[in-house]
Amino acid sequence: MKNLGTILMAAAVSSLFGASVQAAGCHTVEAGRFEYVLYECDDKVSASDVKKAETFLAETEQALGTSVAKVEYHKVALPEQIDALTGMYGVGVTIPKTGRIYSTRTFHAHELVHRVAIELGDPGRFFHEGLAVALAEEKGWSRKDVTKRAKVVLAQRRIGDFVKHFERMNQGDAYAVAGAFVSDLVAKHGVAQVAELFRHAGRSKNADGAFIATFGTTLEAATTAWAQAL
Ligand SMILES: [Zn+2]
Q1: Residues 81 and 108 occupy one common structural domain
Q2: How many domains does one find in the chain?
Q3: Cα-to-centroid distance, 106 and ligand 1 (Å)
Q4: I need a surface site. Which of 68, 112, 180, 203 has the fewest CB within 10 A?
Q5: Of the residues 65, 84, 117, which one is the last residue of a structural domain?
Q6: Ligand 1 centre and the CA of 7: distance in Å?
């Protein structure tokens, strides 16, 4: 399993880089709602990637019941550049405060899910990453793949650790557990209901109250029962 993109929750970091980033791009391509800032001067965005991005964005908006006015999409060559620009090492990063996407790919479904989901609210990393894994298909990260890995991981560790301390856990394990749990929520309750959880959370980053309000049970009870049934 390779690394997936991420969502950067430390809002303070994004403002540090807000002004300097634009200047670092070599050229800009406007395509529909996407503004691509390309950091490699010979880089292009293919018409097929633009189409894929627009289609996937529209499908995700439809599924989550919200919309995005514009997508500022910074395309770099390497994860090291994303680290230098955002303080987060990864193939993709989405900054919640600005909605800005940094990615090593011109079409990155995982980051587009983050881009739409931040319009809804913030129940914390576990749910943001879980939703992105659940809705954006990646090779090796299907529902079956992540459920299998979650079962192995959760034989050793409590699921509550992943919910509460996502950043501190092995990241491959954390993405798999979150992805498997949110995929199961989507399968059982529908994606619109999962979007409601994000709305209920608002800006709180606290999923507990939002989970009860949305699903009528505590997050702890739901995650524990799910993990035991794996
Ligand atoms: Zn992510």
Answers
A1: yes
A2: 2
A3: 16
A4: 203
A5: 117
A6: 5
Domain that residue 197 falls in: 125-229
161-194 residue pLDDT tens = 999 999 999 999 999 999 999 999 999 999 999 9
Angle between helices 109-117 and 125-135 (to 10 degrees): 130
Are 106 and 46 in contact by the 8 Å Cβ rule? The answer is yes
The verdict on 108 and 40 lying in the same domain is: yes
In this structure, of 3-17, 50-64, 154-168, the range with the lowest mean pLDDT score is 3-17
Cα 77 to ligand 1 centre (Å):
18
| Dihedral, 87, 116, 109, 142 alpha carbons, nearest 10 | 100
Helix (H) or strand (E) holding 145: helix 143-153
- Indicate whether 1 belongs to any domain: no
| Distance (Å) from CA 196 to ligand 1 centroid | 19
